[in-house]
Amino acid sequence: MNTREYFKNGDAWVWLNAGTVAIAVIMVVGVIGMIAVRGMGHFWPADVMQASYTDYQGNSSIVVGELVDERIDTAKRMRESGVDVPAGQETVTRRLFKVGNRDVTGADFRWLFADGLKDIRYPDDIVVLERYEWGNFYGRLKHVKEAGEVVAADPAKAWAELQSRIERSNAIHAEISALEKGEIGRINFALDKLRLEERRLQLKDQLTPADQARIEEGRNAQNAAYGKISERLQKLNSDMARDSAVFVLPDGSEHEFELMKIVGVTMPNAMGVIGKTGTYFHNVGNFLFDDPREANTEGGVFPAIFGTVLMVLIMTIMVTPLGVVAAIYLREYAGQGVVTQTVRIAVNNLAGVPSIVYGVFGLGFFVYFLGGNLDRLFYPEASPAPVFGTPGLMWASITLALLTLPVVIVATEEGLARIPRALKEGSLALGATKAETLWRVVLPMASPSIMTGVILAIARAAGEVAPLMLVGVVKLAPTLPLDMNAPFLHLERKFMHLGFHIYDVGFQSPNVEAARPLVYATAFLLVLVIVVLNLTAVSLRNRLREKYKALEN
Given this model, what pLDDT does residue 314 score? Predict the structure, then answer.
């Protein structure tokens, strides 16, 4: 077969398409794999090295830390950057170690030259502390104290005491957090409602002595409840501050920590594979369900997961009926003339508008115009503090609903166009009304396309960041938009989002090296959510298609 016939019969194009698909799959798998390895590998308890280090100037020190990265640079480049590399050396190998102890040394990451590391060991007694502030700490446990008195000095006994007392401290910390977010949050919410009610009655000139007495009685009751909780919190804080531990730093100095400042403690060099696996899943669980700490470079991402899912659910509730109704009107009721074609072109063009434009529109129209007018009409007592006249969950959801509306309309219209005309005419001939035909024949058969469009819209909305930066998302939200205070769902509150969390940690973090693994981990989590949504879309579409295949035939 000559070349002309080979291309003419289409075999070349088949192989070209197959190769393109293979390259695309390899690229996608490679990117996701790289993100997963770099992100999820961060939670594995790495071995901690101890070595003596001498730099090119002859300065010596003891280094304790985890190996994070390794780079090979040319000696010429290092000399240009001011490093006195020995003559005759062409390359320089540098290793990045997480040495922790930022409150002591001023930096928790350190670049070291590989040829300066000597006497490398991995002692079993090195302890790694995860702290609420200042990052990790590396050292050796000396003894454990209770109320300033040593209760365990023997290494084995001190280690057991340290673990049990940290568990006790964490349990008290969780109880304090629950009180602050639960009981105290409800008291503050009730006091704010009383304040707004009093202000509203004053503005209407309807504040009677009876109302004033009732409001004051409510304040007194809430303040009394707060007093009891405050006493309980003081006792809990006193109990939590009881224990401490003394650790020996690599340079031989000692440092004492209150256990209330420690999240967890491990001896990674003394752990086996089973122990490290358990710690790994524990760390992943903390990442998924804890609140962020240390400018989002430590802790978890639960508020961001919660905010992302809640916003997408509200957006879906808004966009689904609007998109389906618009598509039904364009396909089933509107005259197929110039106006309808113009509307379709406009809808298709809206799908290509940059998302930041929707964000600007949402900020100007939804937040400032609608929200400002809502505040003036219904919440004058809150002035000058805005209620809906500021970015929040509702405006973010509406903005993303507007952004994803073209996707739902186009997908629904395509599903409606594929329904055989004979089915509609047969339904009408049997005496069904047009509304009954639409509800019982057309919509069920178009449901695979409708569901596909909706879930594709969800997948796109979950990954959007630019518009959310203008209409509701924040770096750190003090409270979740959903709680036990009526009306339970607070649409006016700001929220956290996984996409913005990635941007903030990756580009706004003061500690780049500490933030890098969390960027990958959060990115992998967001990609995983989007992949699951897309797989769900395919599964739902196939099931609905099989269900209504008999009607099509």
Answer: 92
